Description:
Layout: H1 2-25, E1 32-33, E2 39-40, H2 42-45, E3 46-50, E4 53-56, H3 59-68, H4 77-85, E5 98-100, E6 110-120, E7 127-140, E8 143-150, E9 159-165, E10 174-182, E11 187-197, E12 200-203, E13 208-211, E14 215-219, E15 222-227, E16 242-249, E17 252-260, H5 266-278, H6 282-294, E18 304-307, E19 310-313, H7 318-343, H8 348-359, H9 365-369
Antiparallel strand pairs: 1-2, 3-4, 5-6, 6-7, 7-8, 9-10, 10-11, 11-12, 11-13, 14-15, 15-16, 16-17, 18-19
Helix pairs in contact: 5-6, 5-7, 6-7, 7-8
Amino acid sequence: MKKKWLLYVGTGIGLAILCLFTLTGREKPTVNVQSPQHVSLISDVVVAKTPSETVRRPLMEQLRIELSHVAEPIPDLTEWLQIRVSPYDSQKVALDVIQTDLDQDGVSNEWVAVLIEDIRDEQTGLEQERKSYGVIIDYEDSRYTLQYLNFTSANNGRANVMTIADLTGDSKPEIVWVSINSGAHTTFSEYAVSSWVGRKLETYTGTALIASVSKADIRDRKLQLTGGLIGSVGAGPWQQEFTETYAIVENTLKRTERVYVQTPTPYHRLISGMWAESYGYREQALRDYSEAIEMQAVSNHDYAFIFEGEWVQGGINPDKEAEFSSTIKRFSLLRKELLTEMSRGVDPRNACVSAKKKAGFDMAWLTYLNAPAGYANPHWEEGTICSDIALLEQ
């Protein structure tokens, strides 16, 4: 019995010494020094709570802290950032850091980049989302500053700098950011524009959102985006790719034009004319309406209709399709008369009444105006026959 008691006591003392050694071994943080510019403040990044749980400062906060300790220019800011961002990014995405002269002072001492951070659940440590930030770092008076904007979480970390170019005419470049959100069938790209004003990042109100972008460019200080096709079957086969133009107007990114790449049927020519009218291109709208009225009937084989609540392939019901074509021509005449009356100074309400009378508007039109299958088409009601098509956008 005495030997067993001594064994238990010895074992307890050994465990106590082992536990004490383990705890004291975690108290002192490690500091890795690579160079005066490459000081990794690990004690600021990771705070021990339990053997299985750690807490980090948010990425933007941590970068600001580390940059505040740097007085001399960093030889390679891309490398500096990559080292510090990598622990926050499970996918280890290579950074694209652009060194530029945003304030046009003759010195390229601003850096633009998109940084990505894994957001994890505090309890489980599991990744909840990937968050991205549009970041500008500048260096002046021996001091670095960092400013950023948040992209929506829907992009799941997919964002980048589209370009840096002058969109305001002040000879100073703006940053055009793009973030990407993929749905079940379609990828949507959202564009935002920021300026660097007095060492401050200022992002303009408004964004440009377009599906399935096939081209993005800057022309005449305007953002031009081509795309618009929605991949889901429910969007319908009547869609046509278009080019939208956006400009900075009164400190807001505004759409100023939409032009369809193709208008193969009277219906498409009508829609094109309505968008031209919406953005004030009167002559173009009148031409489109006239062409929609005069175009010969075309095959509807590649399209589809909803007749009596059913989705019907084009070419199956020639009588109803002929009525559809006739209605489109008469509606094009109505829109042409409406625009002509308003151009003469007639108020919109009276112009609508006059245009309906001249075109012989009938409630039966609504059945055929709404016959093109797919939710991507505009939907008309009696009260919106004379409305701006932008108000009918789905």
